[in-house]
Design brief:
This protein is α/β, with parallel strands linked by helices. Helix content is about 50%, strand content about 10%.
Length: about 240
């Protein structure tokens, strides 16, 4: 796991070390993160200058997005884009099993996941960071789908997902999540298990056949998948 030290951003890491049939994932193109609002100015400098991020793909609902965060990211040279993942049953309660979160969210979020995939395939926007609140459930689902469309093995996707259980959770970030959202970030991150991804893919294949068929009605064509591979995989 490649970690970047932050003062007030938790569960941030590069998605790396992933193999696919057509080549490994490129370094420095895809990152994932928890809540970015607590970021210090030093953190923002790391995002914009050290990592050279082009986009933040924010998976939260519109009412969760702070205008100040968008302004601060823009000042750091990073564009904020919203791809809210809809849920059929509302926000989860703390402690909800993440297997149920991933499998339960997928069906409702298919159009939103497809929009994110198409945007990433269409535009020259890397590096990108995919983010939500904990950086586990919505972010974990989106990253698993991206890696699945690239052809990564289930086992590698599940292992990448489970790295959240070892994620850095700076004290300032954890305190703000508890104070403002009532979330015990350290406890929640520590519950992350690879079995959640295996159950997700088993559910997708049982219901749709595969990821490609699940997302095809929403514009994820073969051409989009090829463009995604060209954007994210080593040549």
């Amino acid at each position: 796991m490649t970690r970047t030290p932050f003062e007030a951003i938790g569960n941030f890491r590069e998605v790396t070390g992933i193999s696919t049939p057509t080549g490994p994932l490129r370094r420095g193109v895809l990152y994932r993160s928890g809540w970015l609002m607590p970021a210090s100015q030093k953190d923002l400098d790391v995002l914009g200058q050290q990592l050279g991020l082009a986009r933040v793909y924010d998976l939260r609902r519109a009412r969760e997005v702070e205008p100040d965060l968008v302004t601060r990211l823009s000042a750091a040279g990073v564009r904020h884009e919203s791809f809210p993942l809809r849920r059929s049953d509302g926000p989860p309660e703390p402690g909800t099993d993440e297997s149920a979160l991933l499998t339960g969210a997928f069906a409702a979020a298919r159009p939103d996941l497809a929009a994110l995939v198409c945007a990433l395939a269409r535009d020259d926007v890397v590096p990108v960071v995919v983010s939500c609140v904990l950086g586990r459930d919505r972010t974990g689902l989106a990253v698993a789908v991206l890696l699945g469309l690239l052809g990564a093995p289930d086992q590698e996707i599940a292992q990448e997902y489970a790295l959240t259980s070892e994620a850095a959770a700076p004290a300032q970030w954890s305190r703000r999540l508890r104070w403002e959202r009532g979330i015990d970030a350290v406890a929640e991150l520590g519950r992350t298990r690879p079995e959640a991804v295996h159950r997700l893919f088993a559910s997708v294949r049982s219901r749709y056949g595969d990821l490609e068929h699940a997302l095809a009605p929403f514009g994820v064509t073969r051409q989009v998948r090829e463009a995604l591979r060209a954007r994210l995989l080593e040549k």
